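Hi V.,

Quick status before I head out on leave. The structure for the redesign project is tokenized and pasted below; the design run finished overnight.
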């Protein structure tokens, strides 16, 4: 097990695994080292009382922590990630999970994030939001200090052509609409949760794909409107997405 115990300078009032005291960090290091050593020797039964207490203590200090809002440390964590996942469902629907680039994810306030949603072959998230379903955003560290961040709440959609959509573009994109943009998905956060992320693999970020931009530019405005009218009206479960172009 490869565990990075964070430096004291990474402590913050946001909590999460970055807020261990020095004593807690030492306990975790000892417990994890002890457990790993035994695992290497294929001894899966922890034999000493000291190890059992140490591992229990490690689990306690590294278990999930909950917060009411996104503080500066978590905001920086979001800014340093390359990918985020949306999870949503409405009553009786399938559960949708979508991976996206954080290029279009923005922290608007301590309890509000939003992403510019680009045209795709479906619009599951919007359908679930419209049906008053739940929306969760998840980010996890694929390098550096491990951490998983989950943002739970209720979604809102700002459609193209609305004042809210225009204000968002003005504030974050200098008023220019990126290729394929179709709506904004906002999340009003009621719970922020961090957890350790020790089982998340390490990945190197190679780059962003330009496929969607090229696809949208090739379709052109009229082509995209026709595509969205055909593909984006209902979810795979037949729920209305509420989508309409201005
Ligand atoms: C050009 C194009 C790009 C797409 N890009 C993504 C993507 O980045 N992430 C994703 O989950 N689905 C992508 N999809 C697939 C679906 O649009 C999407 O998964 C599905 O509709 C989920 O609903 P959501 O967009 O509300 O999350 C893409 C589809 C097309 C045609």
């Amino acid at each position: 097990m490869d565990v990075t115990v964070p430096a004291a300078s990474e402590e913050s009032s946001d909590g999460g695994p970055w807020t261990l005291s020095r004593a807690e960090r030492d306990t975790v290091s000892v417990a994890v080292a002890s457990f790993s050593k035994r695992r290497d020797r294929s001894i899966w039964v922890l034999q000493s009382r000291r190890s059992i207490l140490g591992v229990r203590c490690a689990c306690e200090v590294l278990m999930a922590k909950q917060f009411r809002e996104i503080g500066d440390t978590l905001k920086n964590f979001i800014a340093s990630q390359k990918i985020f996942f949306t999870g949503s469902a409405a009553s009786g629907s399938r559960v949708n999970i979508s991976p996206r680039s954080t290029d279009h994810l923005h922290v608007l306030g301590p309890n509000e994030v939003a992403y510019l949603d680009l045209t795709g072959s479906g619009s599951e998230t919007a359908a679930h939001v419209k049906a008053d379903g739940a929306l969760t955003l998840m980010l996890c560290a694929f390098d550096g200090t491990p951490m998983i961040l989950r943002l739970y709440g209720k979604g809102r959609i700002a459609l193209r052509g609305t004042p809210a959509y225009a204000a968002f573009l003005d504030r974050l994109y200098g008023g220019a609409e990126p290729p394929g943009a179709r709506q904004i998905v906002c999340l009003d956060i009621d719970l922020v949760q961090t957890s350790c992320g020790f089982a998340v693999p390490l990945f190197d970020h190679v780059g962003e794909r330009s496929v969607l931009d090229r696809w949208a530019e090739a379709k052109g405005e009229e082509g995209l409107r026709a595509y969205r009218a055909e593909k984006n009206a209902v979810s795979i479960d037949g729920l209305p997405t509420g989508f309409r172009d201005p």
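Above is the designed sequence. Residues 86, 96, 98-100, 120-126, 212, 215 surround flavin mononucleotide (CB under 6 Å).

G. will cover questions while I'm gone.

Best,
W.
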